[in-house]
Request: fold
Amino acid sequence: MSQNAQILTNKAPPPRRIGFRDLLAPMTPEAFLDEHFDRKPLHLPGPATRFADVFSWDQTTSLLDMTTLWSAATLKVVLNGKLARPEEYCRPQQNRDGATVSQPDPARVQALIRKGATISLNMVETMTPEIAAIAAALQCWFDGETVCNIYCSWGGHQGFASHFDFHDVFVLQIAGTKTWNVYEGQFDQAANIPGYRSDSFSDDYTAKARGAVAVQAKMTPGDVLYIPRGRYHDALATSEATLHLTFGVEFMSACYFLDAIADALQQDDLFRKPLPRFDKPDMHRAHLQELADHVHAYMVDPSVARGIRGQQRRRAFAHGFPFYALPSAEPARLFRVRALRTRLVRRGPGWQLERPNGAAALSAEEAKLAEWVLSLDYFSADEAVAAQRGLPVPDMLERFCAIGLIDEI
Reply:
């Protein structure tokens, strides 16, 4: 037996990880996507223990103590609705790359906490396996890059002022209580572009644009809050201390591809050709029409569409997944589960997998594996083998790819 085969044989079934269905329970993903996604906020109360194995104050402390991980860009301090300046809580230090950065000074940070400041630890989506699993699950369902921030607040002090985000937001309440106001106002097609994100506008503008409170969610441990992109909101801690995770799912718009499109069109002789003189309007209009025709031909080229889809996919699946399978030297083989509106049903003596694009008959062994697969958002081939010992898993995974139940990341 080869070394890799022996490693695989000795692996235990993977621990149960929180997935997208767990975040929404008792609501189904189908109901969420039909009724709330990109439409209206949703508060889902949950059992207090729902996120007990996901994150805690002790883990927050451990991350903060890894001082070389943090800079003024990744650890923010907010007091009474205003971001603290880096010089108020940082000092120059060398980071892990040897570059000089503004690194948070624990003594200064704690002094601001004693005044009631909120701290946010940003871009932590790969810092723990549990957080990474949730970020990866959201990426599987939404095909969008997901980031996670940790927020620590203390009662009676305003953290971030009313604002909107340029990504969809999922809030997971870990400890303490916090009251969220989600307003009627929504900024149309918010984006991470100056003039289209919240920090482009004054407090007076925001106070008028946010409108009346549409949803007031009193978040306790185990609760989930969904806020659509562009919807105004704010929050206030109502216990002595409160801890929550915010997952932001950002979707790629055409703006992401403008530079690539411009670079490609520069290779077209027509786009390097001087424009007609501006005092010859007929020639000018004709030339612009020719340019427009070339842009249209480029944009409808099937190879361009494939390239854009490929870039979206790479961005969505770039992080959060268990890419390594040490001590094996081989990379993990990962699969995304395409479970939306998919059912495994009994049909006489056999089984059938019913999907939006059709149905497929399954053997009893395939049905057993399919039932396990449908409980997950993603998995590795090694996990499938460990969980379904004795089944011809590799062959069945190939068939599941062929019928569209899964696809390889």
Observations:
- Residues 322-408 form one domain.
- The two ends are 28 Å apart (CA to CA).
